Amino acid sequence: MADNNPDGGLSADVFIMEDKLSKIRSQINSKLENQKNLAIILSAVEENMEEQKNEKTPVAYFVSFLSLLDQCIKGDNIVDKNLAATTAYFLDIIFPFTPKPLLKGKFADILTKLAPPLTHPESEAPLVRSTIGALESLLLAQDHQQWISSGNISPKRALVGLLELSFDPRPKVRRRAQEAVNKILTNPPASPSPNHVASPICGELSLQRLATLLEERGSKRSNNKEVNSSMIHCLQLITSITSANAWPQAQIEPLCDVLLEISKTSDQFLVSSAFAAFDGLFSSMSNVIDVEKFTKVLDIIFDLKPSINDGHLAASWLAVVAKALESFSTLEPNTCLSKIPAVLPIVSQYLSSDSSDIYISASQCLIAIVTQTIPDNYLLQPTANNGISAELYETVDETITFIAEHVEKELLSIKYQHATKEILELITAVIMKLRSRCNPDFLGILETVGEWRTSETDNFPHNKEAEDVIAASISAMGPDTVLGVLPLNLTGGTQPGRAWLLPLLRDNIRVADLEYYKKNILPLVDFFETKINDAPNKEAMHIKIFQTIVDQIWSILPPFCDLPKDLITSFDDSFAASLSDLMYARVELRVPICHALRLLVESNIAYSEGAVADDLLIQEQISIESSKKHLEYLSTKASNMLSVLFNVFSSTVPESRGFILETINSYLQIISKSDLEVTFNKVCGLLKNSLDQEAENQANKKDDTPKLSSTMMDLIVAMAKYVPESSYNALFSIFSSTVSLPNDVLLQKRSYRIIAKLAETEEGRRSIVQFIGEIENVIVQTVDITHNSARPSRLTAVNLVMDLLPESDLHFIPSILQEIIMSTKDVNERSRELSYQILIKMGHRMNQGGLIRNSRVPGFGEDTPDSQATLIEYFTMVSAGLAAQSPHMISAAITAISCLIFEFKDNLPVETLVEISSTVELFLTHNSREIAKSAIGFVKVEVLSLPEDLVRSNLKELLGKLMRWSHEHKEVEEAIPEEDRKLVANIKKTRNRAKKQKEADTEEGTTTTDGQGKKFVSAYEEALYDSDVSDDDMSEDESTNNRQKGKNKAVNQFIMESGDEPLNLLDRQTLAHISSSKPKKFGKQDMPKEKIATKNGKLVFKDLDNDNEDPLANKGSGIDAYLDAVKQAPVRGQRNKLKFKKSKDNEEDWSDSEDEKPQPRSSNKPKVNSKSRISKPKQKFKAKKKL
């Protein structure tokens, strides 16, 4: 200890012990009896140590608690079980820090004292668990010499006791014993052998116990539940031993036999435990010295190969094989790689099984073997840097060739036809693993699978799996390789067309050659567009198919632009010019072209920044240095490309140009600063001209077309983040001039966004600090001319300014405080959220201190003295709003105070809290409901946030003021004339019935709604509004509720209005205006909506001219229609009256009245009771709660 602490301080171990004991000491006043008891015992022991003037060292604690345990045990009996459990708990804490020489020297004495709690039949679980922990530390302290000693009291005998406790029926005791065994075997004493000296006895005892239980299970015909539980406990112990790499080599083969035998059982818990034991056995062998041992295990497993139709054991054996080879590959990948040619044919035999479970398991096993046993770096080309030698490359190449030949010649044969789906899934996984190394070995497989998919006449049942194979091939080997084997054949000829390849190409291309698209795929567009233009009937089905093919060809352009390998040579000026012309001329092509242009930049930026740095195979195809050169090349094209994009952006309606702005943003990231400055100046000039022109034409302009100035401002906002520092003056000049335009809300919103964009970069934030004085002045001067719709953008700018506010500009806080307070009552949720954030930031800034120059606050005189910035001063400023003349301002001030009290309650003195609370509580009796409601909200925050004694002292007065608002209905009832009170009582009853009906109708939906939970802007709003009590839950007439019990559910009824004349409820003709069905005017929105067909997430539009899609086709033949008409026709009944069939089904239900028209029955139509009264319409709108 002294060696570790040359300064004489305590060791790290002692600090850890002291930390644990200090936590126990702190529980002296705990409400939990067990925690309090621990603290009391520790306190008594430490007092005794102090009386004896002993230092509080691990040895002192060890002696004290061991002697205390000895007092609790007399002979073989435990005198005080509670004290014994507490003492053992402390021994478990102290033993790991006790010096090992002491534990070794006193081993026999200590073990004798620990034995009774472990062996006594009445020992409770807490006592046994703690004693096991102490015994674990005791055994870990013993050396090799003591472990090999043979005596009645020896470490081996103690370990055997732990093994017996590993089968204890009590879960926590059993788990603690198994953990102790694992830790002891994981940390063997120093000896010539790397394995623990006790590992043979552990393996022998546990395996013998497992074999006995297995035999017992087989002999019993029923009641195997207890035996199964004991077997699971034994398997858990074996897992603890194997995971410690302590299983003796001589016992491996018997263990595998037993585990595989257990895997035959139908008990899933037993099988799972057996697999866990296998997993522990495999994962423990992680050293080079274990290679021979692991090889022997693999040989044993393959020697135990079951029959291919063994339904119980085959699937389990395959899972063990997959896990074993996966573990072996991490230990010795080269050896494991050499075993693949021998393993694959053995496992593949199970694909021929008649059981679907077996051949599915075989497929999953093969997938695991190929994907987990071949390291990714083994697939690289041999170079001096990656450590791949030519010999290893050849070995991997031979393995890949073997896999391909085995799949093509064996697995794709008729023998495995029933498992075609699983084999195709295996091929997909192998191709995705081997990537570019599949070429050329897997081309034959690709051709075969492609023919299966292409042949429409054979009705191949696994088209999806075949497409997955082709998609994986496109991703791994490239589109040029796949199309070389499976050409599209879209221009005619004898070969079958493969238009179905186009969606696969779109979804799986990456890191391809853009030139291949330009030369081989894009020319197809001209071919089909010529066909479309020359067709006489533009609505013909084949013309629509041609148009779909054209759209799909264009949809392939963006994937080809996702990190192309040949960007510099393929994306030349002519190709860029052709894309630009198409964006001008073809509106429908703007989306795919912009997407492609954006991907060119973003994919190279992400790749150059290391987005896929762990994918070594992609780095072989294109290096990071190449992507950086691509970006340099694109930056030379960025200026011209931005000009085109700006023009296209200006000519596109605002609702449909978001994707263009994203593309512009991508090129702004790579354009050179000089080119960007020139472009920015051009846009600024266009903005000035458009503003001047719009000012001249403002009187004559009456249309709603978007203004050019708004479009230019969008572009300036986008560029604000990237412009060089030399353009900041112009940028802030634009901000100050456009934000003050009183009649243009769109420009105001965009102006404030300039500040938000600038704040996204470090240079922009520095520029804001540089111009912060001018920004503050502009914000203060434009308070009165800001439109409400621009308020969120303005508050965002203010929020950012508060983050950067220097100490010399604290006058900005009182200058805009009133606006921020008023914004807490804004209808826009975003505005309210920002106002809370700003209020809190202001509070923190004022709490930091500083000098407020009040002479610079608008409305204050120049001789106004300065004041110190404090939190109390800030609350004084906010409280000034309580003296306002407007109820709206007073309500907003109370709301702001509530928010700030919730946030700063711990930073304010009690006197200030009392003063603020008493002031706000005065408004509880205000006549304005808006003010009173905010004051009630403050009371909620006060009760939840302030100290309990503070609320208690004011509770009587507070409740008196609150109860004023609980008797409003009584005053209303008293004011109603006597003759009208019966009407009010009826209205009240009707309201109760409507409320009950609403609750019954929404009973199912309520659970879902409640489960979702309420959403609030802030924690303050949650504290204020998260209540189960609704504003409508007022006290009702209980007698009315009682009379309603047992009645049927009320029926919704509606009042039909006839013009502007209000309905007189006392008129006898009122009943004629009451309907049980909701009255509505027939409008466009009431027309029945036809369901649009979809396929694979795409809309499918049917051809109206297609004879095969006759809308009456599903109505049956003409004869059926005639028979239906005869059945539905009226017939003459008695007295020569016409009878109409009323049922829409085949029931013979006829009406005797000529005036009655047949109506369809509706089970949803409510019945109207003659005694029905007018029900209050359901409340569909309720004032949204806001701060």
Automatic annotation (TrEMBL):
Residues 1168-1187 have a biased composition (Basic residues). It comes from Cerrena zonata. Pfam families: HEAT_RRP12_N (PF25772), RRP12_HEAT (PF08161). Residues 990-1013, 1027-1049, 1129-1187 are annotated as: Disordered. This is Ribosomal RNA-processing protein 12-like conserved domain-containing protein. One of its GO terms (cellular component) is nucleus. It comes from the Eukaryota. The keyword Zinc does not apply.
